[in-house]
Amino acid sequence: MDPVLAGAAGWRSGPPVGRSMEEVLGGLPWLRHALDEALTGTDGLCEDDEQEPRLSAVVVPVFGEDGMQLGACARLRRSELPRPEATREQLEHERLEESFALLDTLFNHAPVALGFIGRDLRCLRINDALAALHGRRREEDLGRTVREMTPQLAPIIEPLMRQVLDQGTSIIGLNMTEESPATPGEQRHWNVSYYPVRAASGTVLGVGVVVAESTEEYRARAERDRLLREAEEAIRVRDDFLSVAAHELKTPLTPLKLHLQMLKGQADAGHVVAPRHVDKALAQLARLSVLVNDLLDTSRIQAGELELTTEPLPLREFIREVLSEFRGTSALHSLRFEAPDEPLVIRGDRARLAQVLTNLVENAFKYSPTGGTVRVTARRMGTEACVSVKDEGIGIPEEEQAQLFERFFRARNSPISGFGGLGLGLYICRDIIERHGGRIWVESGVGHGATFHFTLPCL
User: Fold this and answer.
1) Stretch 120-146: mean pLDDT, rounded?
2) Most CB within 10 Å of its CB: which of 110, 137, 152, 364?
3) pTM as predicted
4) Domain boundaries in the chain?
């Protein structure tokens, strides 16, 4: 409370602090009523017609930067001349000052950034919100040119303002994106409007500026679009996967049923069961089991329930044990193991690491349809052991390598590759290796084979 208001309210000893509005303004009921209205968001002019010298006030609500109302503000004016003796010019002058006071308060407390630029493109009026975008106080921007206030945007803004001045037309809803000195390094977004400010004669005096920040709305739209794209991609992947999964699961069932029917026919006829039908039926069951296990492992990974039981493993002996299972499985391929020069010991889950190496070797056979040599090597690489599986097959296009370890990638890529599979094997391999504290990657070129590497910490 300033001294003028304190005196008018009868507080001769100075402005009161901590008292209620009814106590403070008990002698000014007209002002208390106006402030009550302002606290509900209503502004206006009010005066006391019964007291001389006459009192009047401009009352406005006060808002914070977040748009929430903080309170209300009253600016009191006391006329030293009795009302009957006041001249018309004096009354008009007082009214004009009151109007300016109201406009100033509204201008400076508006929740959007406002400014008035003269014909010479210098700032004549600016509120706190617009000055803050420039990283300065309101007083520091007054008198500056547009180029001095926003040098990075001046090449865009100046022609637009000159267009408003020359043509007398508004430019509404222009979207701008730029860093602000107040927040360097952060892209912010604004909705900007320029309009001509005219005198009563119609002459364009300058350009009015309204800037409303839309950064949060922009980010919300971008996030919504991202989520929509992810949802659409997830639906597409799901549909592709279901189609491929149905085919892959059905593929071993057809020959399995055929061999079982032949076995049943032989048994019913009292003939000796042909071992080849049993072997082929078991092979199809094994293939079906791999597909089902991959689905189960993927479900465990997604749920965070894939558990490891680790133990020290001599790497050379472990690899030889896994590769022995491939002996005689392919007439087109030869399998070679280049053992490390030194004994390497790792800590890992024997079954899961065997699953990784088996998957990589099977892929090497699968994607080398014309045969060739598959080389498995192990070596020390710093504090890690590095295992590599190299084939002489069709290779992998560079643009697909980044997606190779994603879930269901083969399902999305199957029309291109022409090879079956659910696209889960390498996804599972990556998870197992990363759970062991290692990493897995591929080096390949179309027609030049592929080399898969994975590392594991040495003991």
Assistant:
1) 90
2) 364
3) 0.50
4) 3-109, 113-213, 220-285, 310-457
